[in-house]
Design goal:
Chain lengths: ~375, ~350
């Protein structure tokens, strides 16, 4: 039955709105990405498609309803890349993938509306440090929520050969390097001129200093698009890595075909292997991925103010015994009621939202109560 | 020195109801008012005789576990908290049904009020006596038959139901239900039969005998739909001043009135069922009977006994009556019944 006693909310004094940013740590361990749910190339949490244009990674065998989609991997190159060639495996699809990401994330340039080229710095218009062949990691909205928190993203990748254990250690004693956007923050270190929001540069990072063991250049090895939730990593990370110790340089063992042990360098993989096979190669090299997501919560707070002389009685059927109020012995006793629920209504008396108290709240004519009811959007 | 209690403000997280989500999708989500509910509370647990003192009176009530919010709009606040201007109210009106006006009251049979869909059904039920006789059934839309009578007043023996007390405890306290809101399922009921302004509800000041005179008519008020309950319409019905008073006579006022103390108002209702539900046994029962009720049920089963071997179709529904001022309410279980086959 509809409630009969309402109190009007004054829009000027009883209603306010706030915005809150919530962050969650998202740690993705490499063991989920490869190795836990079956042998390489046949993992049950990896979904490949007949179109062969990308690969989806789940946190559990994807045929299970318990599985959550965590990210997709794909790769591609620009038509002007040295890798591009009509004889390549899936050449047009790799070009199309690159163009799709570029046009969505960066946009077009010039009078002929050619797509921009990714660059490993914060200025994609100056045509230096171009990344013409890249891996793309698209994080699920389930994890990313509204955006990746700036300065929180890191990915640890193996630069060693396919067969080296990704736990063999960090550079320079092992093949693992970390790319991070640690120099980005909410107040700087990002570019917002792309068409898909802001992005930061992924630099090699040893935990305290950028470029500590990079090639000395100011540019990084990839980009992270915060709102889109997409990481772009250049393929040159695996074949242009100067100062790499000789014993772990993997030029000819970036990808190994499981069936016969055939191995390829990263350039050979980009040109001669399928997208899915190249994705397998990258996935096998992921040590950890970590970032903080961001959920933007817009709240409206309704101040439900109850003066001392309101809501001291109840229409609850147990409130009276016959007609006599149970909580009173004589007429001069204090009328008492107990609040368990707050209902928010529109002008047609339609109940639009409800809030519950954790325990009954006593209301009588000696107290005024203000309940702050928050509605999050 | 102890800290001051700073728990005056309480922050609650609200959840949208299904109707709230619908209004948001429609773009007309705007909250303008609030109300409080106490559906979980059992006030019978308030122990005014607790041996440890007044601080313990509501100990059990305050320990009541509270449910999470429901998203169904009609499952959240069924009984709201009330605001009355006076703090010295000791009694609140109750609404009681009245089966004491022997030639006018519709009597409840096996927990339901029988509304016959047509004349042949009313005659058959009255004749077979399966429900106990004619006083247990009224024809849909009939203005000359019986009606469900109910009264609003203070149901207590502590205050005599005199005219003076009516003024003191009802009128002066602003507890006079001059109208009643009647909520009914508009899939089965299309209109109400209500008392005319000529109706009276009274007893004799000389001997206390019943002098009630009910004159009924089909309501001319326009029903409005209510979004608080799916498929329900609401009509506001004018009440009759309850002039059954306590006199020091041989016939007690409680032989006429179902309220023991000072009375406020009374009212009577019959219902007009959807015309498609009212065809005779020569026609097939409307699909609503099989969809929402039962068809072809033998009388002994329908009425829970007796020897009626006719078969009937029926739909059960609930009508809610809410006092216009007191907001007290009662639920009337209604059975719309139709003769299916004659034995």
């Amino acid at each position: 039955m509809p409630v009969q006693n309402y109190e009007t909310l004054n829009n000027n004094t009883d209603v306010t709105s706030t915005k809150t940013l919530l962050h969650e740590v998202i740690p993705l361990t490499g063991t989920i990405v490869s190795g836990t749910y079956g042998a390489e190339t046949s993992e049950e949490n990896i979904k490949n498609y007949s179109h062969g244009m990308f690969q989806s990674v789940y946190d559990y065998p994807y045929l299970s309803s318990s599985a959550n989609h965590i990210f997709d991997i794909t790769m591609g190159y620009d038509e002007s890349s040295a890798f591009s060639g009509s004889g390549n495996t899936q050449n047009s699809k790799k070009i199309n993938i690159y163009n799709q990401f570029s046009q969505v994330l960066l946009g077009y340039t010039g009078s002929e509306n050619t797509v921009e080229i990714f660059e490993s710095d914060l200025n994609f218009a100056d045509n230096d440090r171009q990344m013409k062949s890249c891996y793309f990691i698209n994080f699920s909205r389930l994890l990313t929520k509204d955006q990746i928190k700036k300065g929180s993203f890191s990915i640890t990748l193996s630069t060693g050969s396919w067969t080296q254990d990704i736990k063999a250690g960090a550079f320079p004693n092992g093949p693992m390097i970390t790319l991070s956007d640690a120099s980005a923050s909410a107040t700087g270190g990002t570019n917002n001129k792309g068409v898909a929001g802001e992005y930061g540069v992924l630099y090699r990072y040893n935990g305290t200093t950028e470029n500590t063991y990079g090639n000395g250049e100011a540019g990084g090895d990839g980009l992270i698009f915060y709102q889109a939730g997409i990481a772009v990593i250049t393929s040159s990370l695996w074949d242009n890595f100067l100062n790499q110790p000789n014993d772990i340089m993997p030029l000819n063992n970036f990808y190994r075909r499981h069936a016969d042990g055939f191995s390829q360098s990263v350039s050979a993989s980009f040109t001669g292997s399928t997208i899915s096979a190249s994705c397998d190669a990258l996935r096998h090299r992921i040590g950890n991925i970590s970032y903080n997501n961001t959920t933007e919560i817009n709240s409206t707070i309704y101040f439900c103010r109850t003066p001392y002389n309101k809501y001291n009685y109840s229409s609850n059927p147990t409130y009276t015994d016959g007609s006599k109020i149970r909580v009173k012995s004589v007429a001069t006793d204090t009328p008492i009621a107990y609040i368990t629920t707050v209902g928010l209504y529109n002008s047609n008396n339609e109940l639009l939202a409800t809030a519950k108290l954790s325990e009954p709240l006593r209301k009588d004519n000696t107290s005024e109560i203000t309940l702050r009811v928050r509605l999050d959007y | 020195m102890a800290f001051l209690d700073n728990s005056g403000d309480i922050i609650l997280d609200a959840v949208l109801t299904d109707l709230g989500r619908k209004r948001m999708a429609q773009g007309n989500f705007k909250i303008t008012k609030f109300a409080f509910g106490d559906d979980e509370i059992q006030y019978t647990l308030f122990n005014k005789n607790h041996p440890s003192g007044s601080a313990y009176y509501d100990l059990e009530i305050l320990q009541t576990p509270v449910f999470e919010a429901f998203t169904a709009t009609n499952a959240n606040i069924n009984y709201g908290l009330m605001s009355y201007t006076r703090d010295d109210l000791l009694y609140l009106p109750a609404i009681n049904t009245n089966e004491l006006i022997t030639d006018t009251s519709l009597f409840v049979a096996a927990g339901v009020y029988y509304i016959a869909a047509n004349v042949e059904t009313a005659n058959k039920i009255s004749a077979t006596g399966a429900t106990g006789g004619a006083k247990y059934v009224v024809r849909s839309g009939a203005i000359n038959g019986r009606a469900i009578i109910f009264e609003s007043g203070l149901d207590t023996t502590e205050i005599a139901g005199t005219a003076t007390n009516q003024k003191s405890y009802i009128t002066a306290m602003n507890l006079y239900d001059g109208t009643f809101k009647v909520y009914y399922d508009n899939r089965f009921i299309t209109n109400l039969v209500v008392p005319t302004s000529r109706s009276t509800f009274s007893n004799s000041s000389t001997d206390g005998s019943d002098e009630t005179s009910l004159s009924m008519e089909e309501s001319s008020a326009s029903p409005s739909t209510t979004n608080t309950m799916d498929n329900y319409s609401v009509q506001t019905v004018a009440a009759i001043q309850n002039q059954v008073y306590y006199y020091a006579t041989t016939i007690a006022d409680t032989t006429v009135s179902a309220i023991k103390g000072p009375r406020g108002t009374a009212c009577a209702l019959n219902f007009t069922a959807l015309s498609e539900l009212c065809n005779t046994k020569d026609s097939s029962p409307n699909a609503l009977y099989s969809l929402y009720g039962s068809t072809g049920i033998i009388g002994t089963t329908v009425f829970g006994g007796g020897s009626d071997t006719n078969t009937y179709d029926y739909i059960d529904t609930t009508v809610y009556v809410v006092g216009g001022t007191s907001t007290n309410q009662i639920q009337l279980p209604i059975r719309i019944i139709r003769l299916n086959t004659e034995a």
